[in-house]
Amino acid sequence: ARESFDAIMALGLELGGTITGEHGVGVLKKEWLARELGPVGFELQRSIKQAFDPLGILNPGKLFQEDFLHRRK
Known about the structure:
Blueprint: H1 2-14, H2 26-52, H3 66-72
């Protein structure tokens, strides 16, 4: 199932689409969001999250986990 999901996400991006639309990103799509946004866009999103949630209390550990951020850099 995961292999099929990854193939669908990759094809969507290759065709100029997005990995999300009317649904949220969620845990399963977070790595694909990073691919779609690229390093600059992903860092911008992380910075916005930090500005509005400096204590990390809103949806903690979901999209911007430290281990995930280090893998993307």
